[in-house]
Automatic annotation (TrEMBL):
This is Peptidoglycan/xylan/chitin deacetylase (PgdA/CDA1 family). It comes from Aliirhizobium cellulosilyticum. The lineage of its organism: Bacteria, Pseudomonadati, Pseudomonadota, Alphaproteobacteria, Hyphomicrobiales. GO terms for biological process: carbohydrate metabolic process. InterPro entries: CE4_u4-like (IPR049591), Glyco_hydro/deAcase_b/a-brl (IPR011330).
Length: 246
């Protein structure tokens, strides 16, 4: 039922002349894998742009070579080394203030430089914090480091010092199976997010982690692309379009 609810929502958008701008962010890439190739094949099959959040400290030249001929793929900065610096009493966080603001900002500058150097015109100045967490005190410094936008998980807040381009549907069940979540639940969440839209264009970001995808995760992605790729209300867009949108 939830899949039909999502389709009904898209149909309502189309009837009203509204557009859903879709984008996909895949986290934790460092090197070519069979799972990453499977995800990239979906991009090519459906002519859908995707964003790969690569870990700068560990990203390999082989990954850059894999992506060089794939113009639909953008590469964002996934922190520095995806290391937790928070104590056991707190949620995991690389980009907190546990090491001091200066140390974190230095790593973020280095991360952007390395991703740009490694991936060239595939790189985008988008920061994707590991675990989707970053200390608020750091946000105002991101533009001076060269970042144009920030991507975490959840609804975009207004009046932030840096543009937010968030994801809204996470396909992985991190607290349970650590595989794909049930398709009906994912479609219900997508419908709920789109139901809040009251403008001519609403963004819907899908969050994936190719390294932990199981059959349920791949089944959802196959179905989601098949449903949205040709729908008149849907437009798969590169993240750069969302980063620079007013």
């Amino acid at each position: 039922m939830s899949r039909q609810q999502f389709l009904d929502t898209l149909n309502a958008y189309a009837e009203d002349g509204r557009t859903v701008q879709l984008w996909l962010r895949d986290d934790d890439a460092i090197a070519p894998t069979a799972a990453l190739s499977r995800l990239l094949d979906l991009s090519k099959r459906w002519n859908a742009p995707m964003t790969i959040a690569a870990i700068p400290a560990d990203a390999k030249i082989e990954l850059a070579r894999l992506l060089i001929d794939l113009p639909l793929i953008s590469v964002a900065v996934h922190g520095w080394d995806h290391t937790n610096h928070a104590p056991a009493s707190e949620k995991k966080q690389e980009l907190g203030l546990h090491r001091g603001e200066e140390a974190v900002l230095a790593r973020l500058a280095e991360g952007l430089e390395r991703i740009a150097g490694l991936f060239g015109d595939r790189a985008v100045p988008l920061l994707v914090p590991p675990w989707n967490r970053i200390a608020p005190a750091l946000l105002g410094h991101l533009p001076s480091l060269g970042y144009v936008a920030l991507s975490v998980f959840g609804p975009e807040r207004e009046e932030t010092p840096v543009k937010l381009v968030n994801t809204h549907v996470d396909i992985i069940d991190w607290k349970g199976t650590r595989g794909g979540r049930p398709m009906d639940i994912l479609y219900a969440e997508a419908s709920a997010h789109l139901g809040t839209g009251n403008t001519q264009s609403t963004n819907l970001g899908v969050l994936t982690h190719h390294l932990v995808h199981d059959d349920a995760a791949w089944d959802f992605l196959d179905d989601f692309f098949a449903l949205t790729a040709g729908h008149p209300a849907c437009q798969w867009v590169p993240v750069s379009a969302l980063m620079h949108a007013r």
